Amino acid sequence: MRITIAIDGPAAAGKGTISKAVAAHFGFAHLDTGLLYRAVGAKVLAGQEAIAAAQALVAEDLDVGDLRTPDVAQAASKVAVVPEVRAALVDFQRSFAQRAGGAVLDGRDIGTVICPEADVKLFVTASAEVRATRRFKELSDKGHADTFEDVLADVKARDERDMNRAEAPLKPAEDAVLIDTSELTAEQAIAAAIAEIDAKRG
């Protein structure tokens, strides 16, 4: 059986948590496509040129070092607006989506650009304040010293950049199901996603 599930949404909305849980529940492969951009961003911070880094990216690069730091996140957001970087990573993602046995991909443009023919499309969102609170807690737990105000400003800046870029802007696909996690626990959000997928699969 081949089924492709596209889960999009802004930073810290919960799409990663939902995607991993959905993949585990159904036994599908999972790809956090944001890691591709983070891996390229990390290479740029290490002195490589963005387009060359994207073109040379291999699966092993997704397991190198800490790709979840604020600096890497900022670098990822910046390289993601470069059309040649996005083009280089499209084939990687589309190949993954065609895996036998099912695939879950989460990112910013999976349902609109990478897999417009996906069997199920979800758009996971939450208010900027809720997302900043989650990200602030995550960073604080890791010992990063950002203030909440800095994190909120960063979340809003990333939204602005993601939604207004010329290539593959962040937006729900026309046939995507919206899941707002602002008032949901992780368990409730995961259950909502699984219910939508079950309904689509019939």
Largest sheet: 5 strands, parallel
Biggest sheet: strand arrangement: 2-3-1-4-5
Average pLDDT, to the nearest integer? 93
- How much helix, percentage-wise, in residues? 40-55%
* CATH class categorisation: Alpha Beta
Overall 3D shape: globular
**SSE series:** EHEHHHHEHEHHEH
- How many strand units? 5
CATH topology: Rossmann fold
Ranges where pLDDT stays below 50 over 5 or more residues in a row are none
Radius of gyration (Å): 16 Å
Which structural class do you get from the secondary structure elements? Answer: alpha/beta
Number of helices: 9
| Oligomeric state of this protein | single chain
CATH superfamily membership: P-loop containing nucleotide triphosphate hydrolases
Proportion of residues in extended strands: 5-15%
* Number of structural domains: 1
